[in-house]
Design brief:
The protein has 5 helices and 2 strands, in the order βαβαααα. The chain has 98 residues and is mainly alpha-helical. The longest helix is centred in the middle third of the chain and has 15 residues.
Length: 98
């Protein structure tokens, strides 16, 4: 799971990030966006946001197992195309999805 959270979020308290992070089993990473309020992570630093999401997906989705025309490849392409625009905590369980 990839947790993305702004450290200035007043809707979802920042302290909750550590609680859910510790409770999550399996591969996980967190990306704290300094100065970002709720749903403002992408807008605060779009380049870094895209870099972190792409790096996470590349680490946990094995390109060699995805073939053109394959439903998994289509789903991955859709996630990758939308990931840059999701402005709330992304919780992808890649191992279950793929």
């Amino acid at each position: 799971m990839l947790f993305i959270h702004g450290d200035e979020d007043t809707f979802v308290p920042f302290e909750m990030l550590d609680k859910v992070y510790r409770a999550t089993k399996g591969p996980k990473e967190k990306y704290v966006v300094k100065g970002a309020e709720h749903a403002e992570a992408y807008k605060t630093d779009p380049e870094k946001y895209q870099q972190v999401v792409q790096q996470f997906l590349s680490q946990y989705v094995h390109w060699t197992s995805l073939k053109v025309g394959d439903e998994k490849k289509e789903a991955f392409d859709w996630i990758q195309s939308k990931a840059s625009f999701i402005d709330w905590s992304i919780k992808l369980q890649v191992s279950e999805f793929f």
